[in-house]
Write a structure and sequence with these properties.
The complex is a heterodimer of chains A (about 270) and B (about 160). Chain A has 6 helices and 12 strands. Chain A has about 270 residues and is an alpha+beta fold. A 5-stranded mixed sheet of chain A has the order 1-2-3-4-7, with helices on one face. A 5-stranded mixed sheet of chain A has the order 8-9-10-11-12. The longest helix of chain A is centred in the middle third of the chain and has 21 residues. Chain B has about 160 residues and is an alpha+beta fold. Helices cover about 20% and strands about 45% of the residues of chain B. In chain B, strand 6 and strand 7 form a beta hairpin. Classes of the chains: A alpha+beta (about 270), B alpha+beta (about 160). Chains A and B meet through helix 4, strand 9, strand 10, strand 11 and strand 12 of A and helix 1, strand 1, strand 6, strand 7 and strand 8 of B.
């Protein structure tokens, strides 16, 4: 059984544990074949058997070097070497160190077997090389206890996490700025042949009631009366504000018991104040 | 089924959200035109059925609101100018804090003590530091602005 997984540069890797062959297919279609060393191959095989599952150092050593006794540093060296091959030497996102527990293969890099993998090109077969200028860590550098790398259970990086938190704060500030807690009015409107009456209330029921009253009273108004009128009842006072057809405006205010609304609407739209 | 976003997509998402927020900060269309002087006339019937006529002017812009009212009653005239800082603003809401009040004379033109409600509202609005909440009402014409001042229960339409 072979395994398929992604690399961070977009290349797709196919690993055959039986032949220890690792085939890398770049996004451009170039193919690199390389045969892994026995230790790297066995390590990759073990981790890919259960991606996302942490394997302890003892478990890895037992599987990888089952036929001989090795020092702890050998595992560090093998991990280092495999990370170089997988171009994962810098941030260890693929072959992850789980502090004080072991190592695991990041399952987010594993490609579903059913996924479409680009076919390798027969022409461009080159040997894989480790990144030059990189030295293996001294023994114990990969020590699980002292490792500063944290387990990454998702694809999101630390920088992206911080960016999301900052973005969340920016969004909260924006919402706070543009939707601050303030009283709001409700408006109900009716268009009577060019005379548009808007009733303003503290809630929809209040606005609707005022609109019905206004519409009923305005039936006696001449049909030639045009314009926009806003009506509000505040305590015992009616306010009528209007925009006339000539785009001038007027505002009237009086006690609700003194005049009828129809007269106020007409005055607002016609009378020179 | 687990939904996963590819790592490369995170940065464009973050950039897009931030860009939208920044854009909305700088581009927030209002129901009024900035730095335009609006004016209107108003008439109020008093308790004694006298008519208090007013001419009102309003300018909003650069974080400031300035309103001037000239009221006349039986040949007597009085004017008041109110300056305020805009504390918060959205497309339909403007919250202001009165910073300065100038009156041509302290005495009212009518017996305001007969209308205690009007008296207290005027006391409030003429006090430096008072907060007023304007709600802008959409109109069909860009040359006119209508608003409701919640704290005073005052409805106004003005044109320029």
């Amino acid at each position: 059984m072979s395994y398929t997984f992604k690399l961070k540069n977009g290349a797709v890797a196919m690993f055959d544990p039986d032949s220890a062959m690792l085939t890398l297919t770049t996004p451009h279609g170039d193919v690199q074949n390389s045969t892994l060393g026995r230790a790297e191959s066995r390590l990759l095989d073990l981790l890919l058997m259960e991606p996302g599952v942490t394997k302890s150092r003892d478990e890895i050593i037992d599987y990888t070097w089952n036929d001989r006794v090795v020092a702890s540093g050998s595992l560090n060296q093998t991990v280092f070497s495999l990370r170089n091959i997988l171009n994962d030497s810098r941030d260890h996102e693929i072959l992850m160190t789980v502090p004080r527990r072991g190592y695991c293969f990041n399952r987010h890099f594993v490609v579903d077997a059913a996924a479409d993998v680009p076919a390798p090109s027969e022409e461009a077969v080159q040997p894989a090389a480790t990144t030059p200028g990189q030295r293996p860590p001294p023994n114990g550098d990969e020590s699980l206890a002292s490792s500063s790398k944290t387990e990454k259970s998702t694809c999101i990086t630390k920088a992206q996490l911080i960016a999301y938190i900052v973005t969340l704060a920016v969004v909260a500030l924006t919402v706070f700025q543009f939707d601050f807690e303030a009283p709001k009015i409700e408006i109900s409107s009716v268009d009577k042949n060019g005379l548009i009456i808007h009733a303003v209330g503290n809630d929809l029921a209040e606005a609707q009631a005022l609109l019905e009253l206004s519409a009923k009273q305005s039936e006696q108004l001449p049909p030639t009366l045009k314009g926009q009128v806003w009506i509000n009842l505040y305590k015992t006072n009616y306010s009528v504000s209007c925009i006339r057809p000539d785009l001038s405006t007027a505002n009237l205010q009086l006690n609700s018991s003194e005049r009828d609304l129809a007269m106020m609407i007409r005055q607002c739209l016609e009378v020179t104040l | 089924m687990k939904f996963e976003i590819p790592q490369a997509v995170h940065w464009p998402i973050i950039a897009l959200i931030n860009a939208l927020c920044i854009f909305s900060f700088f581009y927030s269309p209002s129901h009024y035109m900035e730095n335009t002087s609006y004016q209107t006339k108003a008439r109020q019937w008093l308790e004694d059925l006298n008519q208090l006529n007013t001419e009102e002017y309003l300018t909003i812009g650069h974080g400031r609101l300035t309103g001037t009212t000239l009221e006349s009653l039986n040949g007597k005239i009085r004017n008041a100018t109110i300056s305020a800082n805009i504390i918060r603003e959205s497309k339909s809401q403007v919250q202001i804090k009165i910073s300065n009040v100038k009156l041509s004379q302290d005495n009212e033109l009518f017996a305001i003590e007969k209308t205690p409600d009007l008296f207290f509202r005027r006391q409030y609005v003429l006090q430096e530091g008072a907060i007023l909440n304007y709600e802008l009402i959409p109109t069909q014409n860009k040359n006119a602005v209508c608003f409701y001042i919640h704290d005073l229960g005052r409805l106004r339409c003005m044109n320029h």
